[in-house]
Amino acid sequence: MKQVALRELKNRLRECMRLVRSGECLQITDRGQVIAELVPPMSATAHDPAAPLTELERKGLVRPRIVKGRASYPRLRRLVSVGTAQRLLDEERGER
Confidence band (pLDDT; 50, 70, 90) for 13? Predict the structure, then answer.
């Protein structure tokens, strides 16, 4: 991020605005201390909550999730017969 002194910004405002328009971010300093930042306006993708993830995918840092249906998971075999859980709960609770 480039830094521009306040006095320099006043003298070269049009040039600084061209930099910002092209996507550059500028920090404005007054006596060596940062007092403001000029950044380009938000694009439509900036409002998209998935934009950061999409950017990481584009850079190859993460892989997109692969959506598979339920059929992709193996069917587990039944360990107990139907109704066993209910019967065990009834025995545990007793009569109420």
Answer: very high
